[in-house]
């Protein structure tokens, strides 16, 4: 299909038919290049983790197929073998009109590397959809694609269309819903061009800064904090070559998007497409895993919901959002609450209470167990009397009777928790030991021997398996197997932010308070950057930073006036220089100014006097100025003690030439020379 | 056994395909209905051929006997169906044997073929012609079924003038192609009447129907679903489409129709359901509000962006207080339906079971392979 265009270059062709000939392609990055899902991702790639009992990548592929994509290139890096094996054995390998091709790499450490590799393979022949394997959506691509193509026809520099979604701009929603940082975007409301993108805004600063030219170049700009980035991009081929040209680009947003917006490379532009009724979100951390699972159970992602995706009639939706497979063994006294999913072959014992949870296949759950808001994957055994709250429990885990999981616990594959053992909140437990170094955000998820077991903590390096187990037995109670990962210094505070557990009330209150304080701070400045309010073009680009200085500037203006009046009085009444110095000094103290300001103000008054005194020609004006400067040299000199103050004076003169005293503009070089000489004379004396 | 019963093999494979089709979308009952219709056709055609063959055998029964030695030489050529047929000629043909499921089990031991042929050559020719006949008949009957389904709108619409009278007011909800053509057919016959269209939230297909009716020149009034009770007293007849008609005469219909049916009953307005015969489902509804329903995305009801703060799982108890339910279908019990109009005419809800007996054979009601794979 795409063969006829294989050798052709990447340039856009003007002929719409030729464009239409390409099958729609997509690049699916089956690696997040982060470590947020550790320790689980040490053993299994993130895209294969079950999301409501179906591997995440299935949601993404199902969406791509329904959106009319014909060719998908799945880029796998960490655990590439597992991903490839899964895709080959799944139904995706045998779909008509939908081909899934895997591209394997072992040394890519970022999305940038991945795209560079794909560029080298030369498989993309037109516009393509760039998506991560952990994105869930049900949007229709047709309109966004059409918009992208139309824009391309008009402007070949429109290389990317980013899908965004409105999300209520409640002060904390974004953080508490998806666990992501607040995102600021500046968008031109007419052209939908993206002008500014900042996802790491710091609240402590209380402001964000926009480039002045951004406002100067666009008739209107809307600054949004109510948009959610869906991480679905429609890109042109140029995107790939840009990544190749800028080999330091790693992160899709942090480097590529910001780089393009800030550095203005070749005039390339990024546009946005906002979706309204459809759903799109990316699983970035454990909190968004929890949120998106619940959205799926609530059917926001319809038709990508478990009972439809599973294909057969094996899973039925019952009242109150209960999803139940056909052969679940349920004790008569078990209480199933609302919004739960129970997979095939699971057995549930007497008096067990389950609510807001997902339970996978072939699990055995004993009696008197309480499960709330938890995600239990396949083949898990939970013995009698256990309590689980907001936890993730991976395949093959065994909870001995009476074990308690506090909110936010992650139990990785095949961990065993001992009898009556209480796993503390937010702890992550794995059979693998924790790598020693805190990895950077860009670290590759790898679980092979080189990074998984190679970076063991030094105190455990020498032990073989048996002593390890006995050692850890104490870590997880009697009979427990696994290591509790230590939380690193400083990271503990952040733990609750990205955990599956709801944000504790005290943190929530604190978060709200912080926000309130921030807002008060901004209101005091008299200029709040409203949620999505329009910034007028004439307002200063540097926003609140200048506002801080506004008061002081007002002071300076009146000070300048006073100095001028004093100077004029001195000229007209022939006041002695010493007295004038005294008077100016008094003014300086009362206005709390530096001597720099005095020098500037005095010089300003001198030049103003020169301009205002009658003159006919430029040379006369020059003479006037020279006269005044020589007469009042001493006054000026007493405020110019070092080089900084001289510079200030020269700057002042420049400012005058530009603004108030246009006549001087012509004379600027001569007068400048004169001042320099004079100042030098003056200073020679003082030194 | 390459020459076992043709019809049984066909039924088996149709069932296998049908099962997959049904599993793909269990809520769409029409799929299962059509599969059952096809199975019924195969059975019927096979039965009629068997009876025809038997009639032929009875005529030539006397001449068969001398060929008994011959038939042993060609055991492999004997066709199972003919064997069965010949076997049944040895017994008196009774109603029992006619209605019995096609006797595929008896095929092998009885290799005799006394089908009136004196030579093996003509025997095989007859066998292949018989199987060709079956194939031909089945194809023809299935084509007829396709024809029936594609013309069911016209067949239903033809009856419009009998039901819609001058200056009447008709109420409908949502959009249905059958209803649209029914109303337009009455309009073409110079009947003048008015239509109230309830918009059919949350998909608002009533808006489209109203638009379409207006372009065809019908006097149309659009109302909200909640205004149905207020308007029903001025209505002469309610005419709606259906998603499926169950064996008890109950109707699976777009959401909101149960309310309309109750309003119609309260004001003694006839509630008429239009349904092509392919929507006639031989199953009885058990727990239809849930099991035969489809819950669609809540985004049809409200904008996710605007309500995302209500769906915040990170704060509070970790569970949302807001729950949006968006069912697609309603179940209207048979006692609320006054009349069904199908392509074969008007029927009472209590008569539905008779129609079902005409269209489907009882063996196919449960379409699971386990029941037939015993062979």
Automatic annotation (TrEMBL), chain A:
One of its GO terms (cellular component) is eukaryotic translation initiation factor 2B complex. GO terms for molecular function: guanyl-nucleotide exchange factor activity; translation initiation factor activity; translation initiation factor binding. Keywords: Cytoplasm, Initiation factor, Protein biosynthesis. Pfam families: LbH_EIF2B, NTP_transferase. Residues 437-465, 523-554 are annotated as: Disordered. InterPro entries: ARM-type_fold (IPR016024), eIF-2B_epsilon_N (IPR035543), eIF2B_epsilon (IPR051956), LbH_EIF2B3/5 (IPR056764), NTP_transferase_dom (IPR005835), Nucleotide-diphossugar_trans (IPR029044), Trimer_LpxA-like_sf (IPR011004), W2_domain (IPR003307). Residues 553-687 form the W2 domain. Residues 543-553 have a biased composition (Acidic residues). It is found in: Cytoplasm, Cytosol. It comes from the Eukaryota. Belongs to the eIF-2B gamma/epsilon subunits family. Component of the translation initiation factor 2B (eIF2B) complex which is a heterodecamer of two sets of five different subunits: alpha, beta, gamma, delta and epsilon. Subunits alpha, beta and delta comprise a regulatory subcomplex and subunits epsilon and gamma comprise a catalytic subcomplex. Within the complex, the hexameric regulatory complex resides at the center, with the two heterodimeric catalytic subcomplexes bound on opposite sides. This is Translation initiation factor eIF2B subunit epsilon.
Automatic annotation (TrEMBL), chain B:
Residues 118-129 have a biased composition (Basic and acidic residues). Residues 101-133 are annotated as: Disordered. It is found in: Cytoplasm, Cytosol. Pfam families: IF-2B (PF01008). Keywords: Cytoplasm, Initiation factor, Protein biosynthesis. GO terms for molecular function: guanyl-nucleotide exchange factor activity; translation initiation factor activity. Its main location: cytoplasm. SUPFAM superfamilies: NagB/RpiA/CoA transferase-like (SSF100950). GO terms for cellular component: cytosol; eukaryotic translation initiation factor 2B complex. InterPro entries: eIF2B_beta_subunit (IPR051855), IF-2B-related (IPR000649), IF_2B-like_C (IPR042529), NagB/RpiA_transferase-like (IPR037171). Component of the translation initiation factor 2B (eIF2B) complex which is a heterodecamer of two sets of five different subunits: alpha, beta, gamma, delta and epsilon. Subunits alpha, beta and delta comprise a regulatory subcomplex and subunits epsilon and gamma comprise a catalytic subcomplex. Within the complex, the hexameric regulatory complex resides at the center, with the two heterodimeric catalytic subcomplexes bound on opposite sides. Belongs to the eIF-2B alpha/beta/delta subunits family. This is Translation initiation factor eIF2B subunit beta. It comes from Gossypium klotzschianum. The lineage of its organism: Eukaryota, Viridiplantae, Streptophyta, Embryophyta, Tracheophyta.
């Amino acid at each position: 299909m795409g063969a006829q265009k294989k050798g052709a270059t990447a340039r856009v062709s003007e002929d719409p038919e030729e464009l239409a000939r390409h099958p729609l392609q997509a690049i699916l990055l089956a690696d997040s290049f982060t470590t947020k899902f550790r320790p689980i991702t040490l053993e299994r790639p993130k895209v294969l983790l079950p999301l409501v009992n179906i591997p995440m990548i299935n949601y993404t592929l199902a969406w791509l197929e329904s959106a009319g994509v014909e060719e998908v290139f799945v880029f796998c890096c960490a655990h590439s073998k597992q991903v490839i094996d899964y895709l080959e054995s799944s139904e995706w390998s045998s779909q008509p009109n939908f081909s899934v091709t895997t591209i394997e790499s072992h040394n890519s450490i970022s999305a940038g590397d991945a795209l560079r590799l794909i560029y080298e393979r030369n498989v993309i022949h037109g516009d393509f959809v760039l998506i991560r394997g952990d994105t869930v959506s049900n949007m229709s691509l047709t309109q966004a694609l059409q918009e992208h193509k139309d824009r391309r026809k008009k402007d070949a520099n429109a290389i990317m269309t980013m899908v965004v979604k409105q999300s209520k701009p409640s002060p904390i929603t974004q953080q508490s819903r998806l666990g992501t940082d607040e995102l600021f975007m500046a968008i031109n409301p007419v052209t939908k061009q993206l002008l500014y993108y900042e996802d790491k805004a710091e609240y402590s600063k209380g402001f964000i800064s926009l480039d002045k030219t951004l406002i100067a170049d666009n008739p209107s700009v809307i600054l949004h904090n109510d948009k959610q980035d869906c991480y679905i991009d429609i890109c042109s081929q140029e995107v790939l070559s840009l990544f190749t040209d800028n080999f330091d680009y790693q992160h899709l947003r942090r480097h590529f998007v910001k780089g393009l917006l800030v550095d203005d490379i070749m005039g390339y532009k990024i546009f946005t497409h906002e979706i309204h009724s459809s759903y799109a979100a990316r699983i970035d951390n454990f909190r968004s895993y929890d949120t998106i699972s619940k959205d799926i159970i609530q059917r926001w992602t319809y038709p990508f919901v478990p009972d439809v995706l599973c294909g057969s009639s094996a899973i039925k939706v019952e009242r109150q959002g209960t999803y139940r497979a056909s052969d679940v063994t349920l004790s008569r006294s078990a209480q199933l609450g609302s919004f739960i999913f129970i997979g095939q072959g699971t057995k549930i014992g007497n008096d067990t209470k389950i609510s807001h949870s997902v339970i996978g296949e072939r699990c055995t759950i004993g009696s008197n167990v309480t499960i709330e808001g938890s995600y239990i994957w396949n083949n898990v055994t939970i013995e009698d009397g256990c309590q689980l709250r907001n936890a993730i429990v991976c395949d093959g885990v065994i909870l001995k009777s009476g074990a308690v999981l506090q909110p936010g616990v992650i139990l990785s594959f095949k961990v065993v928790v001992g009898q009556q053992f209480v796993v503390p909140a937010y702890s992550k437990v794995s059979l693998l030991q924790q790598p020693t170094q805190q990895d950077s955000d860009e670290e590759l998820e790898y679980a092979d021997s080189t990074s998984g077991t190679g970076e063991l903590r030094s105190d455990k390096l020498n032990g073989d398996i048996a002593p390890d187990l006995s050692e850890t037995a104490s870590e997880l109670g009697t009979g427990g197997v696994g290591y509790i990962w230590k939380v690193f210094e400083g990271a503990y505070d952040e733990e609750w932010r990205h955990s599956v557990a709801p944000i504790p009330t005290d943190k929530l209150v604190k978060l709200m308070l912080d926000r309130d304080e921030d807002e008060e701070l901004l209101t005091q400045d008299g200029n709040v950057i409203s949620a999505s309010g329009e910034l007028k073009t004439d307002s200063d680009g540097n926003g609140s930073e200048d506002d801080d200085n506004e008061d002081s500037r007002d002071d300076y203006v009146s000070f300048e006036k006073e100095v001028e009046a004093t100077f004029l009085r001195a000229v007209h009444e022939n006041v002695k220089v010493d007295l004038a110095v005294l008077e100016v000094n008094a003014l300086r103290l009362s206005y709390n100014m530096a001597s720099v300001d005095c020098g500037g103000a005095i010089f300003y008054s001198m030049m103003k006097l020169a301009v205002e005194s009658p003159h006919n020609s430029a040379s006369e004006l020059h003479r006037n100025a020279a006269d005044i400067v020589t007469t009042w040299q001493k006054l000026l000199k007493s405020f110019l003690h070092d080089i900084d103050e001289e510079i200030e004076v020269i700057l002042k003169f420049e400012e005058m030439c530009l603004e108030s005293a246009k006549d001087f503009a012509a004379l600027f070089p001569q007068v400048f020379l004169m001042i320099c000489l004079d100042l030098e004379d003056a200073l020679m004396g003082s030194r | 056994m390459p020459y076992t019963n043709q019809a049984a093999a066909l039924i088996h494979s149709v069932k296998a395909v049908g099962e997959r089709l049904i599993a793909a979308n269990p809520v769409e009952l029409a799929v299962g209905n059509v599969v059952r219709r096809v199975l019924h056709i195969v059975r019927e055609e096979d039965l009629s051929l068997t009876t025809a063959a038997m009639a032929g055998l009875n005529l030539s029964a006397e001449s068969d006997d001398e060929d008994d030695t011959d038939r042993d030489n060609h055991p492999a050529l004997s066709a199972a169906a003919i064997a069965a047929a010949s076997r049944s000629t040895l017994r008196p043909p009774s109603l029992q044997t006619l209605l019995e499921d096609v006797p595929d089990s008896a095929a092998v031991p009885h290799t005799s073929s006394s089908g009136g042929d004196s030579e093996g050559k003509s025997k095989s020719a007859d066998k292949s012609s018989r199987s060709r006949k079956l194939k031909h008949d089945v194809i023809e009957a299935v084509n007829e079924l396709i024809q029936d389904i594609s013309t069911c709108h016209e067949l239903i619409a033809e009856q419009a003038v009998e039901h819609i009278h001058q200056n009447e007011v008709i109420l409908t909800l949502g959009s249905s192609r059958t209803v649209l053509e029914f109303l337009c057919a009455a309009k073409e016959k110079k009947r003048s009447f008015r239509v109230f269209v309830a918009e059919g939230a949350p998909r608002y297909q009533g808006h489209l129907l109203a638009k379409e009716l207006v372009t065809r020149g019908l006097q149309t009034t659009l109302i909200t679903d909640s205004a149905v009770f207020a308007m029903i007293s001025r209505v002469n007849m309610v005419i709606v489409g259906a998603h499926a008609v169950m064996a008890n005469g109950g109707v699976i219909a777009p959401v909101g129709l149960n309310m309309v049916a109750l309003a119609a009953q309260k004001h003694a307005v006839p509630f008429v359901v239009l349904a092509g015969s392919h929507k006639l489902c031989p199953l009885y509804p058990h727990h239809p509000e849930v099991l035969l329903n489809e819950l669609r995305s809540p985004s049809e009801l409200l904008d996710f962006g605007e309500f995302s703060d209500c769906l915040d799982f990170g704060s509070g108890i970790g569970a949302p207080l807001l729950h949006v339910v968006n069912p697609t279908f309603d179940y209207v019990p048979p006692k609320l339906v006054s009349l069904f109009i199908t392509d074969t005419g008007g029927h009472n809800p209590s008569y539905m079971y008779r129609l079902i007996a005409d269209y489907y054979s009882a063996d196919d009601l449960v379409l699971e392979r386990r029941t037939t794979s015993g062979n």
